What we know:
The complex is a heterodimer. Chain A has a single domain (20-172), classed as Aminopeptidase. In chain A, 23% of the residues lie in helices and 31% in strands. Chain A has helices at 54-59, 111-125, 141-148, 162-172, and strands at 20-22, 28-29, 31-35, 64-70, 73-86, 89-97, 108-109, 132-135, 151-154, 157-160. Helix content of chain B is 30%, strand content 0%. Chain B has one helix at 21-37. Chain B starts with 20 loop residues before the first helix and ends in a 20-residue tail after the last helix. Chain A binds chain B through residues 5-8, 10, 12-16, 51-52, 88-89, 91, 96, 102, 129, 131, 133, 135, 137, 139-140, 143, 146-149, 151, 153-157, 159, 161-163, 167-168, 171, and chain B through 1-4, 6-7, 10, 12-19, 23, 26-28, 30-31, 34-35, 38.
Amino acid sequence: MKKRAAIYLDFEVDKLTRSIENIVSGDSFQTDITRLKFTDLKHTSKKNKWSFDWKYELQQNDRDVYKLTITNSPEIIQGLVSLTIRPGHVFMHLLESAPFNKGKNKVYNGVAGNLVAFACNISFQNGNEGFVSFQSKTKLITHYEKTLGAYHLGGNNMIIATDAAQTLVGKYFKT
Amino acid sequence: MGLVKEPDGVDFVIHSKPLTKADEQAISKFISDYKAKHKLAPTAKKTRRKLSSKVKV
């Protein structure tokens, strides 16, 4: 069997909002996070400029893949995250904003932060006290420390602990 | 936490590195250390003051 390469996360956390925000108009839009379905994969292929192999993620039994969409606009995927609930923490395998939410001409702010907050929420719901770990590209470690309050564990390993997780969840999820 | 400018010129290149046993151990150690450090201080035990029914004068 061909050995798959591990992947560092390099999602950009742009703005922490309760929703996502249109960069041009400044309007905020409420969002929903639901499970990615196989029928969604036609929108998330590399042909459509997504960077990761989301079909592979969806095929893994140990992973849960979620999509972020704007409420009342469920057909347009704004971002994706792949998670595993491990003993003690949630591990983020992949997180990616939609191609139109990357780079200088991106449409919406807040997609990555929204999905990370969701991972923290899953962690709390599963009794893991908000702990979420992931691997970061070296150049983004400081970025994640500042924006997410994540700790750098050495190497490329990062973790979001309870305090920062509570802050993120508080910003995105109404209780 | 608030508005954060995105770093310019970030490319979405994928690198490879498997999560090693050492990585997993580092994560577990961090979590246990964090929990120990942030453990809530035990609250003082509340004692109910007993009122003496009769006070001798």
